[in-house]
From TrEMBL:
Keyword Disulfide bond assigned: yes
GO cellular component, one term: chloroplast
Keyword Disulfide bond: yes
Composition skew (Polar residues), residue ranges: 260-273
A Pfam cross-reference name: Thioredoxin
Protein name, entry field: Thioredoxin domain-containing protein
Annotated segments matching region Disordered: 238-273
Classification lineage: Eukaryota, Viridiplantae, Streptophyta, Embryophyta, Tracheophyta
Species name: Eleusine coracana subsp. coracana
Domain Thioredoxin positions: 61-198
Keywords recorded for this protein, A-Z: Disulfide bond, Electron transport, Redox-active center, Transport
Superkingdom in the source lineage: Eukaryota
Function: Probable thiol-disulfide oxidoreductase that may participate in various redox reactions.
Family the UniProt entry places it in: Belongs to the thioredoxin family.
GO biological process: cell redox homeostasis
Length: 273
């Protein structure tokens, strides 16, 4: 009874039986409290404050730790552009069919290597660091990259159907070789480079793509490329006359002179004199 009166007055019973004066808040903790169960509050002997039973709400600060979908897409898109890593000054990406034709034509006698790749090609991605290393070791060679996913129609017109794929071009000789290789068969690429790299002076302008490939690109409606077949030069009439009259005309062989014999000489020959 004394303990109850002491608790009502704000005192706390100590283990030794002495009464100590405490604040009303401490006594409230010792008193029976209410707990929220479901949608109602019920009394319980729990020595504490109110306890809300329910789903714990996440802190507002945790929102900053989660990236938005837009940020995630930008990060993934940027990390997937592996073909732009490690590029050398003598490497660049082709933008159109006209750009490819002009690059080959303006290269002159310089060796040009066209690299056809696709962003989703695992073999292309594995081979890319070695191609960049080879380009760094050969600064006099021009490397052109063609993205198959962006130029499918152009690749189809010039008969590129396997990846990774490479073509070597030089001056008036045009296409030197074409092949497909992977990281395991990189020796094929190095052998072709060693064979065609030595400087050579070609007679005439750079050829670039084949005539049939240029016509196929021009006939492709998906491409903005025009090409007119150059007529073959025909020698004029004066040139033809010069060729014919360049050699001296053949003179007929001189005829042997006829010797006429008189009647007296015939009689002497017949008589044996």
């Amino acid at each position: 009874m004394a303990a109850a009166q002491a608790m009502a007055k704000g005192s706390v019973v100590s283990p030794c039986g002495n009464l100590g004066r405490r604040r009303g808040a401490v006594a409230a903790r010792m008193a029976p409290s209410t707990v929220r169960i479901g949608g109602s509050w019920r009394k319980t002997a729990f020595l504490g404050g109110r306890l809300a039973v329910g789903t714990r709400k996440s802190r507002s600060g945790s929102k900053s730790l989660m990236a938005s979908p837009v940020q995630m897409n930008l990060a993934i898109g940027k990390s997937m552009r592996w073909w732009e890593k490690g590029l050398q000054p003598n490497m660049r990406e082709v933008e159109s069919a006209q750009d490819l034709v002009d690059s080959l034509t303006n290269a002159g006698d310089q060796l040009v290597i066209v690299d056809f790749f696709s962003p989703g090609c695992g073999g292309c991605r594995a081979l890319h660091p070695k191609i960049c290393q080879i380009a760094e070791q050969n600064p006099d060679v021009l490397f052109l990259q063609v993205n198959y996913e962006e130029h499918k129609s152009m690749c189809y017109s010039i008969h590129v159907h396997v990846l990774p794929f490479f073509r070597f071009y030089r001056g008036a000789q045009g296409k030197l070789c074409s092949f497909s290789c992977t990281n395991a068969t990189i020796k094929k690429f190095r052998d072709a480079l060693a064979k065609h790299k030595p400087d050579r002076c070609s007679l005439g302008p750079a050829k670039g793509l084949e005539e049939s490939e240029l016509l196929a690109l021009a006939a492709n409606k998906d491409l903005q490329f025009t090409y007119t077949k150059m007529p073959e030069p025909v020698p004029s009439g004066d040139a033809a006359v010069e060729v014919i009259t360049s050699e001296p005309p053949k003179q007929p062989a001189p005829a042997k002179p006829l010797v006429r014999q008189s009647s007296q000489e015939r009689s002497l020959v017949s008589s044996g004199r």
